[in-house]
Amino acid sequence: MTTPGAPSPVPGLLAARFARYAGLVGAVLLAVAGYLGGALPDAPLNVTPVSIWRAPGGAATLACWLVGTALLVGAWWSLRAGAPSSRWAYVTAGLWALPLLLAPPLGSRDVYSYACQGWTYAHGVDPYAVGVAASGCPWGETVAPIWRDTPAPYGPVFVLLAALAVTVGGGLTGTVVLLRVIAVAGLLLAALCLPPLARATGVPTRRAAWLALAAPLVGVHLVGGAHNDAVMLGLLLCGLLVAVRWPGRPPALLLAGALLGLAVTVKASAIVVVPFAALVGASGRTVFRSGAWLGGGLLGALLVASALSGLGFGWVGGLTRSGDSEQWTSLPTAVGFVVDYAGAVVGRDPQAVPVARAIALVLLAVVLVALWWRTWRRVAADLGGLAAGSGGLLDASGGLAVGRDALSAISGGLPAGAARCRAVLHGAGLALVATVVLSPVFHPWYATWPLALLALSAARTTWFVLPAAVAAFLALPDGTNLARFTKAPGALAMTVLLLFLLLRMWRHAPERSLRP
User: Fold this and answer.
1) For residues 327-342, b (16+ Cβ closer than 10 Å) or e, as one string?
2) Minimum mean pLDDT range among 156-165, 190-199, 402-411, 492-501
3) 74 exposed, middle or buried (CB, 10 Å; 0-12, 13-18, 19+)?
4) What residues have CB less than 8 Å from 326, skipping those under 6 apart?
5) How far apart are CA 262 and CA 239, in angstroms?
6) Are 368 and 438 in contact (CB under 8 A)?
7) What's CA 394's distance to the chain center, in Å?
């Protein structure tokens, strides 16, 4: 735990040096595992851990992957309170990423889906109307079978980027290389935005950079797997930085909204951050007015991207097919599995998974609204809005106002501006956590979505670092998801964990209600 406003402990140089090189050895082992049995184009599909073990070099593949993951996770975990310095964190994250940058695709076959979706668009076919199998993509057999018949679930900006990679790269290898370059560019953009955001929130950059950039999930899945989440995160942080640096200025809010809109047109999950960006960009103006400028920039980006691609808003329909995969790693899916298992015991087939997922999406909407409202009340109260009574919430135009001067910081010892920024980014991070937890599908790289925002704002780190560390073990180098082989025990464990957390929250609710 880190006390808000207080510097986090600096690790000893010897321990830090040991962690750096242990992690580097781990990254090299993961790269070796990638060459031995990664997500290569001609790798066998629908394999099991047993079939991988029995294949030539299979034992070495699994050993390198498991030992490498353990070393990388252990090194990252050991410095979760912060690296010795910001420069040290960036250099180490770069060292760890280098072997993974040179490795074949790791942990997922999604990069081949990207390639085929880009090929589909580049050859005049609507990727939101047909799957890659029907599009005539020459690399269709490299795509995981479950995704061959599904339309593209990504926004038009990423489809354009994938088409550019296909056009410039030529063949499959060149396309995959360029898609990885695009992912790394997204990470570099995020890395550039972290220091000014860390200064704005009063969090040491050495902690924020370490947690957000050196995470094993980032190296393996965003660099090695070339996932488009990296591009979304880079645009997301850049949009938030613009809103933080120039609050209350319409041109800056328009630009921030446009950047957030571009993030949404890469991956739609970024939309949950937008309402929080309106709070951080208010500064003396009404929240509604700032939100209007921000929303104008976002809407403009959506319209321009959809028009330039010529695809309109067909990509919105593709989002409904992202739930075709059913694994216990999604909390609502796990609960649905357990209900189905219980029904089977008494001879029933409840078909509870779709119901559980629908309930979770409704709950997600409620949670997102509650998080925004709590964040707004907290910010307004500490900036003097709520302290003056309901009348203090209104400015001359009758809108909801957030004043420039603060009476007290949200987190002890922080300047007023840093307190507000930290509270808003924390709310946005929690919104992404809720989106990950309550979504119908969970893949390990989804855990990277809230990492940067929580690294920039959370006082306690273990609660989000630990799940990210565990998620690093869920996939094998060829993209095989271990959740497929642990369906019943995993669903039961996830449901028990949910019941435990609900019971814990219920038992501690009276204590929270008594706090001043």
Assistant:
1) bbbbbbbbbbbbbbbe
2) 402-411
3) middle
4) 333, 337, 353
5) 9
6) no
7) 36
On the 0-12 / 13-18 / 19+ scale of CB atoms within 10 A, 392 is middle
Which residues contact residue 507 at a Cβ distance below 8 angstroms, ignoring those fewer than 6 apart? none
* H or E element, residue 31: helix 13-37
Closest CA to 161 of 100, 218, 91, 231: 231
The residues with which 401 forms a beta bridge, in sequence order, are 286
Predicted pLDDT of residue 323: 57
CA 260 to CA 425: how far, in whole Å? 14
What is d(CA 23, CA 377) in angstroms, rounded to the nearest whole number? 42
Look up residue 404 and give its DSSP letter. Answer: S
CA distances (Å), origin 336, targets 79, 488, 500: 37, 11, 17
Return the amino acid letter for 267.
K
Q: At 135, list the tokens.
A: 């599009």
Residue 474 is encoded by which pair of tokens? 């869920």
**Residue 124 CB coordination number (10 Å):** 7
Give rounded-to-5 percent helix, strand, coil for the chain. 70, 0, 30
Matching residue, tokens 């056009």 = 167
Judged against a pLDDT cut of 50, whether residue 52 lies above it is answered with: yes
Q: How far is CA 317 from CA 25, 198, 239, 432, in A?
A: 43, 37, 26, 21
Who's near 254: CB < 8 A, 6+ residues apart? 293, 294, 296, 297, 300
Does residue 273 register a pLDDT over 50? Answer: yes
Q: In this structure, which amino acid lies at residue 32?
A: V
> What's the chain's Rg over C-alpha atoms?
23
Cα angle 143, 145, 150 (rounded to 5 degrees) comes to 85
Residue indicated by tokens 């809005």: 385
